[in-house]
Each structure stands twice: as structure tokens, then as C-alpha cells.
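ok trying this again, last paste got cut off
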Amino acid sequence: MSVNGNHLASQDRRPDAAAVAAERGRLRYYLEGQSTSLGRYVLEQTLFSFLRGIPGLAGIGLRALAYGLILESDGLPVVEEQVRLCQPANVHLGRHVYLDHGVYLHACPQGIFIGDDTFVMHGSVLHVYNFRDLPHAGIWVGRNCYVGEQCLIRGQGGVHIGDDVLLAPRVQILAVNHVFENPSRPIMQQGITAQGVWVGDGAWIGAGAILLDGVRVESGAVVGAGAVVTQDVPPRTLAVGVPARIVRHLDEDESEGMRSGRRVQGDTIRDETFEATRGEGQMLRRALAAE
């Protein structure tokens, strides 16, 4: 299955993390996961030690000035206290990006890119730990997006999120999967697939929904709370359930509502005439009560 023109469905059977750590040496493996060089690691950890825990506006101001030395930002970044950054040299923040308390960014190459005016809220994790050197690993978040509290985005296969996308709290986007074909070997030793996940402009992913590796959620689509998406979601459709299925075409609902004199509002359809009549009745009751 192809997520975009550059991604091919393939299996990576290179060693697991424990084997790589043993091969490279555990200290080297740890340092390579934290930073891009020993010198940068010392600088980054020094800044974190002094600045990461300072609360309020004072901490935000100091981090805005100092963190420009260790990450790329278009303007001064707004970083709350206790934000954890691993390999910050591979973090790229647009203008007016907001990282809330307790956010965790782990940005192995190609890194993490967050567009202008995007909010990443409390406890969210954007994680690209690419020790296998996967070619498409990374996370790209567009402009004017909202990543709700405690979302998890794993970017080994590449996660591309468009502009004006809303991720409700505890959404999981998992651009990686494990191979389990061989019953005689532990699953951890059988390798992974990493096809990538793509979310189009203006989509809304409901609270607790999970997008699995290899899917596309097209522009303007809505994924219901708690859904598990295993197949592509076409544009301007509503998908719900486990596994998710298409239950509504939003443009058809809007056209039907206009023809019948009704309007679509959220998940309900309201009759304009009924609303007007109900409003007049409420005004009359208030007038009588006043008398």
C-alpha cells in the first residue's frame, strides 16, 4: 500500500534496538539517541539543567532566548516548563509555535517540523527514534494545527499532517508496525513495516482515535472518537468504529440539509423553522413572566 508517491510498503528486518545497542556500545547508543554530537549534548544538557524547570513567563522568556542555540525556529519559540527535547538540532519550529508543559519531541533525522501557529498541548509525544536509518522517517505538522493533550505520534515511516488539522486529546498516529509471520521467532526480532501516515488539510481526528501505519485520512475528513483506522478515509467523510468504516458523506448531508430547509450543525440537523418558532415561544414566556 502506498501512502504517497515516495513511500513503498516494505519490511525492514534489521536488528532490534537491543541488538543495535549491544553492537554499537550502550553509551554510544544512548548519546546518539539524545543528541547529534557530544559537544551539542553537553550544551543542550547544560541549558536544560538550568532552564527546563523554570515556570511562568520568566521561564518562557529565558527558553525563547536560549533554545535558539539548539533548535531551529522562525522567531522566538514559546516553550513551557518540563518540555523534553532529544536531538533538538533536528527540531524545526515555525512562527508562534506553542509547546505546552510536558511535551516530548524526539527528533532523529529527518526530524520534526511544526508549522506556524500550531499548538502542541500538555503531555503530547512526537517521537522519531530512527536507529534503523529508515529513509522516510520524520514528522511534518502543518500550519494552524492543534495537537490535543497526550497525543502520540510515532514517525518511523513518516507522518505528514496538513494545515488546519485538529487532533483531539489522546489521538495516536503510528507510522510503524511489527512483522509477526514467523511463529518460531520472537516478534521483536522479525522486523517492522513503516509505510507512513498522511492526514490532509482541515481533517478532524476525534479523541482517542488511532491511525495505523499505511493509511491516508484525506482533506476535510472526520474520524470519530475511539475509532481505529486501518483503511484510507476519503475526503469529506465521517469514519467511526473499530475497525473504522465510512458512515457519512459530509457534502451530501450538507446538500440535503439545504434542500430541506435545514442546516447541519455538528452531528445534528436543525430545522430553521422550528428554531425560529422555538425562539419566539421563549420570548413570549419571558414577557409573560415579566408581567
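PB: full thing came through this time. Confidence is low (pLDDT under 50) at residues 1-10, 257-291.
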